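for the writeup, i need someone to sanity check this before i put it in the appendix. the sequnce is what the collaborator sent (i think, or maybe the updated version? ugh). structure was predicted straight from it, no edits. if anything looks off just tell me and ill rerun, i have time this weekend
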Amino acid sequence: MSEHITTEKLQEEAAKLWANIEGKTLTPKDRREIPPQEMPSQDPEVRAHNMSEVALGYTETQARVEAERCIQCPGAPCKKGCPVAVPIPEFIKHIQAGDFKGAVDTIKQTNLLPAICGRVCPQEKQCQSFCTVGKMFKAPEKAVAIGRLERYVADWERANNQITVPTPAPETGKKVAVIGSGPAGLTVAADIRRAGHSVTVFEAFHKTGGVMVYGIPEFRLPKAIVAKEVENLQKMGVEFKTSFLVGRTQTLEQLLDEGGYDAAFIGTGAGLPKFLWIEGENLIGVFSANEYLTRSNLMKAYDREHADTPLYEAKRVAVFGGGNVAMDGARTALRLGAEKVYCVYRRTRAEMPARAEEVAHAIEEGVDFHFLENPTRFIGDDKGRLTGVELLSYELGEPDASGRRKPVAIPGTEHILEIDAAVVALGNESNPLMKQTTPDLEVNKRGNIIVDENQKTNIPRVWAGGDIVLGAATVILAMGEGRRAAASMNEYLAGK
């Protein structure tokens, strides 16, 4: 594990920098010389055994120092990389002036979930990839830490009881049903309610938040933060109905006709896990990442004294995949008591789609990465319990359609890895229930709902967005689709 830098040490370094720049008029050259501020975090050896948030957030001094690195360049290229077009230079300018409330209010012009996005958005692939400062150094990691600054001001607002809830426009008498309370659904609910329409959100689970609650672990996104965002929507007048599975409790058609809704938005996500389809995948101890993470996140299996769901005890766990969900699964396994956790990926670290920060955190915490390997079969005992997995070694060939070098199997390199639990984290496909119960709804061959440029489906009065349209994507991309859908829906309702 790499040496852990304590919060105290980082704060001490930030204080020295702040003493040199506070109150001074800085040139772009001065700003470029300010080093990036590292995010304080729990010690890896400690955090690998608790569910508390890993990243501790900037201190005020760190936030002020990091904000001063922004050169306020013309054209705001960083904004172009944001799916919801947050006015990034403007909110950072507020931080430079010490106006944290002004900063978060600026963000909320287009994004009502900054505390969430500041934690889980892949900023390094979006806004920060366009940052001029990072490009000047030809080092993406030296871009201004936009996401960390967004998180700081959102947390500051909550900690200081400065949250202001938007006031909806006068009531229009129009009713909208939002199906799914994930990031797309919450975004649609907020934007439509702001326009004065009545909004009811239908959630299949007993808790609201969608993938932010059942998929993303507590140590990356505390559930209290998601609950607070839902509470803010309730204060705006949005109604939530949980344990209501559209397609089973009522069909979409019944909901629209019997409920008297003028429009509906489908944001049911991508909840159908992909599998390896290899021998032994039905053995006891082999889990989809969906089930493994849902048991831990939504049902709190790690809380052995109070959880209503059993925890599968395992000492040697293998996680298959290279995305953020695989990192979540591997790091969760450590926190559930595994003594050894392997992450098996058929390419190299350079090709992994997971966020660099999440991979680094996993390595720090002790996850053992097996690159250029892939499972061929699971092995069990006479009681049907998993005891091992056969792996085959690979090498990289020519790039495939994704632009990544294609993994090529090396015959005769099979070898056994002893494990007693496996987590398959190969991504998800779209939830098929809506199509099954709404025969006229058009979907593509992958089961994703087909929409036009305004997120409209082929069914009148029905829009869709998020993972049910995109396939498994990110929180911020789902929010971007939600904003686009809400704008179209509001236009439709205004003219109805």
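The chain has three domains: 7-159, 175-271+429-495, 275-426. The mean pLDDT is 94.
thx in advance!!
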